[in-house]
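Entry:
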Amino acid sequence: EADLECLQQDIERKARDLVRLALFHEQRRIGDEISKKVLGSNSRSFNMVSAAANDILKRTFGMELVELHSTSQDADISQKDAEMLKNAGVKKKAASTGTKNYILRSLLDPSLIQRATAPDPDIRELEQVEFLDENEEFAEDDNPVGTRSTGSIFAWHSSDQLASVGILYVILALILVEGRSINDNDLHAILKRLQLPANASIPLSSQSTNQNLTLGAYLSQLTRQGYLEKVRLGNA
């Protein structure tokens, strides 16, 4: 019983460590850090630690830690190309199911998020009283006291990575409407029309290692983080 109690305490301690690690790296995926900073030499306990950590994340933060799945280059291959490969005697490689990289995913109900982001006049009035803007240059037209407020529970305007996340969502939306893939040159052409040339500076928060990234460097970072996948087609 003593050994079982010690094991349970060790699992709980490592679960809390994993929660802290996941929250600290909320903006990016984690992989090797789990073994190095949480599990140590006892990597076999990952499943129990992960389950306990997810229980804490779900109950306290409305999140869960999930593994990123790899995407094979030919995962979405067309029926015609698949037939050509079959006739050529080329076997399609089975896609790996996991990458050993993990990210945090929100479990909040969409309807709850919608209500939390909706403006509320009572909340906005409290914000106006609490956060006064003495600089009249930034005063809102409908807010004579100069308070920059939204009146919602979720203050998206004060997000840590507001600019970069906004650009990410635009890029993902462009890829989605193009059928989940887009030519690199076409993407850059569209972004340039949105005043985002290749040398545009992407502002990041003070918590980031680099305070500013060029658009090209930012796209490379998104690829490393698993948001984007680059696939070379033919001799292109």
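The CA atoms of residues 114 and 154 lie 10 Å apart.
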